[in-house]
Amino acid sequence: MILSVMDILAIIIFLSCWIGYTQFSRIKAKDTACLSRVLHQHRIHWMRQIFDNDVRVSHAGLLANLERHVAFFASTTLLVLAGVLTLFTQIDKVNAVLQTIPITPTQLAVTMQIKLSLLALIFVLAFFQFTWSMRQYGFLNIMIGAAPVAYQTEEAHLLDYARQMGILQDQAGHSYNYGLRSYYFSLAALSWFFHPLIFIAASIMVVWVLYYREFHSKTLRAIQRGIIDLEKHCQ
To answer: What is the DSSP string of 59-101?
Structure first.
């Protein structure tokens, strides 16, 4: 049998954890404090500050710094993907190494190919997310370049334009996060080579780590406190 019942169960749980957490976090963020929700408010405040001066070099520098992070992961993903594809030519050697680990069951070559295919697919998806994030940051740069100045424009129009730029920056940030999330789940998928039970445990652990950092971390509380203080100052 190419995949055992335990292997099939493990891959179902893995996909359920990944897709389920993505949908859960998206819905929960609408009415619960989380990193994406509070960062959205900071982004709108940031975009509003752009209109107060004609020279926007500092803002361009900050955006360029964000783009560098995304570009680093995009290029790294290609290198990792190349490494995974190379392993397809070394199936026997990889299997021999895994057999030295006591808990690892005997695996057919086609089973190893399926597991490597899952890893390759994850990094392909990550590359798409990172490159889309880079493009969206490029679109945001265009909007900043076309942004009006405060003394020539009504406040209502400025706020609306700032919200639109904040939304675009949110989308770029979300694509970046989805790419990083692929890296998290790729580590869980890597454990499938050792045992399907470890694969299941790793998938659940990744969801717990993502949930804690998104909704209960100290970083979230610090950012949330910052937006509260900012709103008080602006009143």
So the answer is: HHHHHHHHHHHHHHHHHHHHHHHHHHHHHGGGHHHHHHHHTTS
